[in-house]
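Step 1: inspect the first sequence and its tokens.
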Amino acid sequence: MKFGFFDDEKKEYVITTPDTPLPWINYLGSQDFFSLISNTCGGYSFYKDAKLLRLTRYRYNNLPADSNGKYYYIKEGDVIWNPGTMPTRTPLDEYQCRHGLGYSRFHGIKNQLSADLLAFVPVDTPCEINVLTLKNQSASAKKLSLFSYVEFCLWNAVDDMTNFQRNLSIGEVEIQGSAIYHKTEYRERRNHYSFFSVNTPIDGFDTSRDEFLGVRRGNDRPLAVEQGKCTGSVASGWYPIASHQIDLVLAPGEEKELIFLLGYCENPQEEKWEAPNVIRKTTALAMQEKYHTSAQVKKAFQDLNHYWEDLLSRFFVNSQDPHVNRMANIWNQYQCMVTFNLSRSASYYESGTGRGMGFRDSCQDLLGFVHLVPERARERILDIAATQFEDGSAYHQYQPLTKKGNLDIGSGFNDDPLWLIAAASAYLKETGDFSILDEMVAFDCDTSKAQPFFQHLLRSFHYTCTHLGPHKLPLIGRADWNDCLNLNCFSSEPGEPFQTTGPSEGPVAESVFIAGMFVKYGREFQTICEKYGHTEEALQAKDAIDAMYQAVLTSGWDGDWFLRAYDATSQKIGSHECEEGQIFIEPQGFCVMAGIGVKEGLAEKALDSVKERLDTKYGIMVQQPAYTRYYLNLGEISSYPPGYKENAGIFCHNNPWISIGETMIGRGSRAFQIYKKTCPSYIENISQIHRTEPYIYSQMIAGKDAPRHGEAKNSWLTGTAAWTFVNLSQAILGIQPSYDGLCVDPCIPADFGDFTVTRRFRGAVYHLFISNPDHVEKGVKYLEIDGKQISGNLIPFEEGKKEYQVTIHMG
């Protein structure tokens, strides 16, 4: 069952009913100002940091769900409705929501009055623009009143929803013309404020929530709207909002366009204390003037469209499969940019108040966006590295506004250091910019301890070398990629919090997954050392990598698949010897991606075991059999019901690892089959089962042991976006950046057909035509570069060359 359709030409997903299984959202913003907006106009806005600089309030776990946002109430006679249907839920004669790249459009008609709403964040200004166009489609004049509505958050989103004894006394606003200014806490400790304005004279306003809604009323039936008149309230303490009243009379066929602006402003720090209770409106007035007319807003919207056109032109495929084209050219890359901007901080499943930017998360996300914004990727890598400790370990998360490590989450996830090498190698391959290795970068944000970035990579590598267990495999620490596999934990009494084992006892739990990471990214580090002129470090790295490779073969192989780990007492995890949890997806993917067991014939065996024991019609599960009871030695993983999350759920994030592994051994049809099972476009027709957005990847899907097998959760902010794009663009389609140029090594189904790719790489445009007359799944006979035939599959990089015409002959 579908609830909409793809409009590929306009690069939009069109939702045709407000009654989607879950709120289907979009993200507005590309730099510092962001808004989340659902298909019924729910959502919220913030500047840079969703916790510390939240502009508008949102209530998670609210009933009805998704019932706070930026709303426009239209009152005509006794009928009150909204263009996106919420919050009044008045049935409309027509409804449509179009989510596009950085914007959303809403269309509603009620009683021959149409309302069209365009919402977007301009590229270069910290504000959200809402353009509302009302049109009388009837044969007689219409008299109506329009009421806008936003509810301000008191900046710190956690304090806003917890510290009521203070917050119910500090709300403060100021009204000037058609602009309502939110200046709560400005007098005390902030030099910023927000405003909500409209580009026309108003007939009334309210800034007190209780006065506008009415005491004990919800926003589904505001008292002021019912009565047809705002009260002119000025919030003092209590709950500040912004509502404009605009009375209109529309002749037959007449339309009226209104431009609303939600803006964020900062004043120079030195001005703050001159008159701390008076905001300086210079910036706000300039912003309102900048977007006052239709022509100005149209230009800003065109600039936004050009911004996305330029980004998405950097990788473009034309194949015989419309799903591949749609996902690769539009939605997958778009989601990669959203995860670049927000990591895991703010979605409809992440409240924006806790996680911030993840060390591992942001490094992985970089794999999917480095080709889009290499200069910003460079900045992100250095930001991440600055949170690292001197021994090579790292805070697991950091706050985007302060760049400080998150003390609540702390450190001890022993896969984190290696992800920094993964990000660095992706950047170096994409750009060839080895100067980043010389950049001075702090440790733990302490600039007095700054070292060249290369030292950060060296310490990341050596952290694993110096943290090995009794089987010479890497210590898992608090956890590895699977945050819920806590093998160094125990609890003496039921209900007590987990504690790590003491120094005398370890912790000694080991991870085969990290071993696979170490071999894969250790080889990247070795190459970086060689190209950077550090021969001795390269030789030392090679020895450590070879030793780890052998340790995996000796102690990490279970007979038909790779073990997952050893717990703190050296008991096997992910073995046929286990009662439950006998095989895990992670080491099968990463060990094969690292090349472990390929020449020994073990890789094919491991991947066959994945197909036999972990695969379902909706994707590959994390492990099997699911844990049916709680295991003290495993930690959080067994706390989930069977089939959900890490306990045998389908993590879309690591399904690409298996697909990439299949391409390592040349099985293109199987790799593509795995890709299709979790790809939103292919499964749009089961949206009633899948439930999350059919244009965006989710973190997980319920496994076969769950009552709701096939139901997805946690959409948008997930490493699935980056890893799936890497899988499709580099492993399946085979367009692979390398240190010396662009490699082309497709691994596709035999019937996939010929295809073309346009790829921008290091300042040049590569026009690639992949020909497969023999219908092979993998193999390149030769290349023709600008008419000249060469052997191999590397297109050597030539400094200064701006365009390449390349034919790749598979066979």
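Step 2: inspect the second sequence and its tokens, then contrast the two.
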Amino acid sequence: MKYGYFDDRAREYVINNPETPYPWINYLGSKNYFCLLSNTAGGYSFYKDARLLRITRYRYNNVPIDAGGKYYYIYEDGEYWSPTWAPVKAKLDYYQCQHGLGYSVITGERKNISTEILYFVPVDDNCEIHRLKIKNNGSSVRKIKLFSFVEFCLWDAYDDMTNFQRNLSTGEVEVEGSTIFHKTEYRERRNHFSFFTVNSNISGFDTDRESFIGLYNGFHEPQVVVSGRPGNSIASGWSPIGSHCLEIVLQPGEEQSYIFILGFMENNPDNKWSSCGGINKDKAYSMIRRYNSDIKVDNALQQLKSYWDDLLSGFYLESGDDRLDRMVNTWNQYQCMVTFNLARSASYFESGISRGIGFRDSNQDLLGVVHMVPERARERLIDLARTQFEDGSTYHQYQPLTKEGNNEIGSGFNDDPLWLILGTAAYIKETGDISILNEEVSFNNGKEATLFDHLLASFNHVVLNKGPHGLPLIGRADWNDCLNLNCFSTDPGESFQTTTNKDDGQAESVLIAGMFVTIGPEFVKMCRFIGKDEIADRAQSEIEDMKKAVMEHGRDKNWFLRAYDYYGNKVGSIDNNEGQIYIEPQGFCVMGGLGIESGFARKALDSVKERLDTEYGLVLLDPPYKQYYPELGEISSYPPGYKENGGIFCHANPWIMIAETVLGRGNNAFEYYKKIAPAYLEEISDIHRMEPYVYAQMIAGKDAVNHGEAKNSWLTGTAAWNYVAITHYILGIRPEYEGLKIDPCIPEEWSGFYVEKRFRGKVYKIHVNNPAKVSKGVKHIKVDGEIIEGNLIRIPLENQARENVNDNTTQHIVEVIMG
């Protein structure tokens, strides 16, 4: 069943049924201020850091599921309703939610009163706009009251939900005209506050939650709205809120517009403080004046749309398949950008409290955005490198506000260092900026270094941490955080312990080995570009040694092993009763060229097709674990078919897509692509449940009770890797150090496609024709009418950072004939 439709011209997903299988959300904000907003106005807001500067509250795992948000209530003659359906849930005569790029519009109508609420965050301001238009579609005069509602969080979201003995006595607000100031903590920190305002005179307000809702009421029946009378309450401790009451008279056919602004102010310590509670309101009022009319709001919205149009114009596809085009041109890139902004910190599945910016996560996220925001990708690489230790290990996560690591010294996730090489390579290939390798960035201990020194430390971290078979030590875990193989017991009767000490933890990872032979050559090329040939030679020798180790000790009869555990037992082998084959090493080992000439790579991918493929995507392993195995760690704690224990972990699926293109099997690659791409799942929303416009991290596998049901949408590495798989490898428009490679691997039935690619300051209009109906192979390429040698359009690297890399609009016509 469908709950809406794609409006490709407007770049919106339009929802016409409020009761979606799960709240379908959008992200508002692009730089520092962010808001999560569901299709029925649930969600919350924060500034920079979803934990430390949370502006409004939200309750996870609640009943009903999507409780709390940016609500409006309409009261008339003893009746009340919500124009966003929730929270009152009174039946609407009309409902529609349009989720666009950085904005949402929710329209509701009941008894000839219609409302349209536009929600968005301006590009360059730390606030969100709610413009509510209300119209009388009837033939008689209507007198109504409009109530607004937000609930303020007391900044630190974790402290807010735990430290009640303190927090219930700290809340402070102030009301001045139509503006409600939330100034909790001004005494302690004196550098920030938030406000909620409307560009109209009000007939009343409330700032105390209990006074507005009632102690025993819910969001659906606040006592102030039920009575139709504001309480004019001033919060003193307890739970501060912001609510306005407006009395509105509408003539037949009349429409009125009201602009509500929820804003955040971070004051400079040198500011002079007003005598009114210690907060400086001048900046707030200046912000309010920037958006206090419809024309100003319209201009800000147009600026936002232009901002996203420019970001998404770096890669444009015409394939003849609407679902593919909308994924590539709009929704996949949009999700990549949102995920880059927030890493894994704040979604409807991540509370914004326990996780910040991930080292592994963000380096992978770069792959999907470096063509859109190269300057921000560069900045992120430097931030990530600063969290790295001198031995190459890293903090696994850091808080975006403080840039401080979340974990103890050294994360023990031994795959982390290699991702920095991959992220840096992606940046250099896209921009041509080789100078980033000379960027000065110290290690975590303060030792001065260049980015190249960090990459060398990353490479050496693998070289210096090998196990008995010459394979990389896994540490606490590799990419699969739940595969914890350094669990041991000195006595069978004792409980298991865990170690990540390299002298004790001898568990080895074939996945990291596959990553090493795939990502390692990128480091070798960088070395050669900057004249470090001796290091390059040593690195290449280490890569060759790793290839030998994998081919000798890292494979089973028909596929690559996953690992060796603490005791030296194989994981991911036909000899195991469960977990006989894993997806990850099949992808990375083939991507790294292992087993290509011998035919073993083909055998491994055939085994993936036979053992891991389902109608909804590739499961992570087969068969799943039916019981808990302490020596395997968390992976076997999940029921069969869920998450890492045999779920369709979508993040790893594109690794197989890419591996299939290495073998030239475009039919298989695109078949796998379609199975998890959300636009192709719109018709099965009752099964899939998540948004049909963005990827989910996990889909329940073939052994799960609810096969095909997704969880954890939006913030997932699935977004970047699927963008890479479809654009770089299936369509084959791939940045390389030396220029732009054209190397499609498509379904044989395709006759061709057209791509516009913005690359190093120029636009390449690429026409690919496939008259011979082959999957892979380029017969010849013409650039501006001239045949070039091979399939690489050569463009030299730059020895300095490129500024305004997207400004040059010089165009080149590229004609490609496959065959």
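Step 3: confirm your contrast with the notes below.
Residues 322-342 form the longest helix (21 residues). The mean pLDDT is 94.
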